[in-house]
Amino acid sequence: MMNQTHRILVVDDETSMREFLEVLLSKEGYMVSDAKNGKQAVNMIQKNDYDLVLSDIRLGDITGLEILKEAKKKNPDTVVIMISAYSTTEIAVEAMNEGAYDFVPKPFDNIELKQTIQRALELKSLDHEKENTSSELRKNIHFNRIIGKSPGMLAIYKRIEQIAPTKTNVLITGESGTGKELIARAIHENSDRGDKPFVVVNCGGIPDTLIESEFFGHVRGSFTGAVTDKQGLFEAADQGTIFLDEIGELSPILQVKLLRAVQETSFKPVGGTKEIKVDVRIISATNKKLEQEVIEGNFREDLFFRLNVIPIKVPPLRDRKGDVALLSMHFAEKYSKKMGKDIVKLSSYAIDFLNKYSFPGNVRELENLIERSVALSSTNIILPESLTISMHKKRRWVEGIEGRRFDLSEVEQGVDLDDIMSTIEQAYLKKAMELAGGNKSKAADYLNLSLRSIRYRLDKGD
Q1: What's the start-to-end Cα distance of the chain, in Å?
Q2: Which of 62, 81, 127, 223 has the most CB atoms less than 10 A away?
Q3: What does DSSP say about strands 102-105 and 266-267: parallel, antiparallel, or unpaired?
């Protein structure tokens, strides 16, 4: 039975009460022992481990309060519930101050007593779960900010340790939401520049008309609106690190100017004539395939080689399944504190549910999902029903077909439905033919098609 792992000690000097409680609790599946007086109870507590002690206050030799103190002295995690027919407010307060979980007056309601014991033991288990969860998280937090123990992330931690002490430029690639900035910060903080500026620039978030001024600054009067001299971000990062996020979004003109700054480690502000020399380490990041951008002529090859001295590729969350539970626990703990809740863990079913999802938005999507789940959860355990993952599945209704993902939000921009349906059809035909070992008749059975129909569809795809 589910409660057999819980050991309960019943302490009462009335034989009938001890026997009644032993029968009542044994029927619930608990392993029940009993003591007829305080001295016997103390002796049993010293020799054995109990999950819960249910003790009367008045025992004839020593009081239940002494048993409470002894139980807590032996093991602070032991749950103690006091019962008495002669309860007073003072005794109840003293018992609670000494660490009693509850004070139950006699005569008690059997159902309420069983519920009190069940809640107490659940709380004890959850406290252990919380401790274990926190311990597991602490072991897998790297560089004070990155969480994960999957092979791909372990390789990145090793690379960070290797390159952090150098001045070498680094290019971090990976899908949106994988945590590229966290890795950039870890490199900076573990270098000899760690106490110097770490300047973040979102290259895709600054208008082309302003980005040169943002990068290199400008002098007063250099353009309309330039009423004062302005320091650029490269100068602000002197002696430190500049993180160029979404580097693939830079226009060709800015790529030329950035290349010169990287090569010469100097630049001129917009409208200025004086060269400004800086000592800046450049860490760049992109979710684009920059090599392909170079081939297609969208990104300068010489700039690519200057930035990509040390490459780091961050794996998507779907390839870090071992990290989903860790990250989920971290975010649950983070938002539990922020919202004043006491979320202890995610149920194993919830973790399994998350592990089956591909997370196209990666760690950022997982964080949003857990934040929402903490807000919606009515218990201190996150259950699958509080994970609104179905909303995400509706949005990303089919993915991974021939390496292509489909998103219903794309409809607003206009899509080629015939092309989408053709891609899906060919993917299913291909899979059916693989399963059938090339036998068209068997493949047709898999897809509930006639032999003539599957032949036509296969020919259409050639």
Answers
A1: 61
A2: 81
A3: unpaired
Residue 445 DSSP SS3: helix
Q: b/e map of 99-116 (b: 16 or more CB within 10 Å)?
A: ebbbbbeeeeeeeebbeb
Q: Cβ(3)–Cβ(120) under 8 Å?
A: no
Structure tokens at 264: 């010469």
Say which CATH class 408-461 falls into. mainly alpha
pLDDT above 90 (res 200): yes
DSSP letter (8 states) at residue 73: H
For domain 161-313, give the fold: Rossmann fold (3.40.50)
| Angle, CA 302 vertex, CA 297 and CA 303 arms, to 5° | 90
What's the token pair of residue 385? 């029903």
- Please tell me the CATH superfamily of domain 7-136, with its number: Response regulator (3.40.50.2300)
Q: What is the pLDDT of residues 220-262, one digit of tens each?
A: 877 777 778 888 899 999 999 999 999 999 988 889 999 999 9
Nearest to 285 by CA among 166, 360, 200, 192: 200
